[in-house]
């Protein structure tokens, strides 16, 4: 479930990418079947890393 989505964009495959601000994650909505998956983020914080290690604090934008 999304909690405070802030921004969205569309990737090259037509999927919708959403910054899920209050869940501290970047999510993908598949336009093929509607499934939602987490692309990056785990818990609140500040940490660089791969998709399983990265931590965000209320991500609000995408580029």
Automatic annotation (TrEMBL):
<keyword id="KW-0677">Repeat</keyword>
<dbReference type="InterPro" id="IPR011042">
    <property type="entry name" value="6-blade_b-propeller_TolB-like"/>
</dbReference>
<protein>
    <recommendedName>
        <fullName>SMP-30/Gluconolactonase/LRE-like region domain-containing protein</fullName>
    </recommendedName>
</protein>
<dbReference type="InterPro" id="IPR001258">
    <property type="entry name" value="NHL_repeat"/>
</dbReference>
<dbReference type="Pfam" id="PF01436">
    <property type="entry name" value="NHL"/>
</dbReference>
<feature type="repeat" description="NHL">
    <location>
        <begin position="1"/>
        <end position="32"/>
    </location>
</feature>
């Amino acid at each position: 479930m999304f909690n405070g989505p802030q921004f969205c964009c569309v990737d090259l495959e037509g999927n919708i990418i959403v910054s899920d601000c209050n869940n501290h994650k970047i999510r993908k909505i598949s336009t093929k079947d509607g499934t939602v998956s987490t692309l990056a983020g785990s818990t609140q914080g500040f940490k660089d890393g791969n998709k399983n290690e990265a931590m965000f604090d209320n991500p609000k934008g995408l580029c």
